[in-house]
Amino acid sequence: MAHSLANQINRCRDRLTEADQRLLDVLLRDPANTAMLSASEVAREAGVHAAAAVRLAQKLGYEGYLDMRSALRSEVVASDSSRRIAETLAGSEGDLLASLVASEVDTLLGLVRHIDQAAIETAAKALLKARSVILCAQGNSIVLADLLDRRLRRAGFRTSLVTGQGREFAERLIPLGRGDVLVCFAFRHLPREITGALDHAPQVGATTLLIADHIARRIPRTPDHVLAAPRGRDEEFLTLTVPMAICNALILTIARIDGGQSVSTLDALETLVTRFD
């Protein structure tokens, strides 16, 4: 949708009912958190029926509640990102590239204070035992999940990347079962899809691995394995270099302890690729 949620609300203000206003009060009170809630959760806080949340979304021009929530999430991320970038620029003097590199290096050096090689190796062994690996991500973390998905496949793993929202997300989780490992990514916020997946995994006998930043402390159910480290100072631009380093450490550790399986699979891939050149 081209128009912002605020514009849509203003456009329809004369048609909003008391129930609509109560829903909007809940949604706009703390968008960073309410943008993660389901229609029933928002409705419960507003003291109205869940169907009212769907009707509000449609009144504002969205296909349904999920579409409206997606718009709210996008606005939250855009607003927060612009603030962080502005504060990063304000704190940089002269050579911006040099300042950024220094900040990234400092953050990376701090990684080993939060995660040691033993934790990486324990997680790597869990992945090696997996029947299959299901990777779940939302937002910017999809880039990292896709990277890990590709590298695990090249190492001979059976993998599946699960993104999307609502029903689509749930449908992609159906194959998850006993002997599988669920790998979830979470940064800054806790999408309902991620907490839901982490809750679901133990019920079907799957092992859980969370790659995260400080948000890991807010996970209701502790995953089997957690690899979490800060991505920079909260008030400044947050890097993806730290979780990328965690993913790379996992892949290299797997290659070191899998008895040559990763190297063998890569050799087979190179042979196969020549058939398509």
Would you mind describing this structure in some detail?
By secondary structure, this protein is α/β, with parallel strands linked by helices. It folds into 2 domains: 5-82, Winged helix-like DNA-binding domain superfamily/Winged helix DNA-binding domain (Arc Repressor Mutant, subunit A, Orthogonal Bundle), CATH 1.10.10.10; 104-273, 3-Layer(aba) Sandwich (Rossmann fold), CATH 3.40.50. Helix content is 58%, strand content 9%. The chain is built from 13 helices and 5 strands. It has a 5-stranded parallel β-sheet, with helices on both faces. α2 packs across α4, α4 crosses α5 and α9 packs parallel to α12. The protein is globular and about 65 Å long.
Condensed summary:
This is MurR/RpiR family transcriptional regulator. By secondary structure, the protein is α/β, with parallel strands linked by helices.
* Large-scale geometry: globular
CATH class bucket of the largest domain: Alpha Beta
CATH-defined topology of the largest domain: Rossmann fold
Helix content: 55-70%
Widest sheet, order of strands: 2-1-3-4-5
Order of H and E elements: HHHHHHHHEHEHEHEEHH
Task: Please count the helical segments.
Answer: 13
Layout of strands and helices, then pairs:
Elements: H1 5-11, H2 18-29, H3 31-34, H4 39-46, H5 50-59, H6 65-90, H7 96-111, H8 117-129, E1 133-136, H9 141-154, E2 159-162, H10 166-173, E3 181-186, H11 192-203, E4 207-212, E5 225-228, H12 241-257, H13 261-273
Helix pairs in contact: 2-4, 4-5, 5-6, 8-12, 9-12
